[in-house]
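Data follows
____________
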Amino acid sequence: MANNEANEVRRMDDSDLDQEINEAYRALFTLRFQHASRQLENVRELRNARKRIARLRTIRRERQLQAAETEE
């Protein structure tokens, strides 16, 4: 499942990817707030949100490295 999501993200352009990263951080903030106020029922959502952010940032970094490689 994660591989399919990564492939979908790789098809996005850079602006969409940055927007998706911002939305993922907002979702993580909301989940943390819900967890602190004991409203979060599924604690695993926190882990999934962190993994999603890591996946998105990894793909963005891959693009940065690829762009730097083509400049040289």
Summary: The chain has a mean pLDDT of 93. Residues 35 and 43 are 7 Å apart (CA to CA). Residues 44-71 form the longest helix (28 residues). Residues 2-71 form a domain with the Helix Hairpins fold (CATH 1.10.287.310).
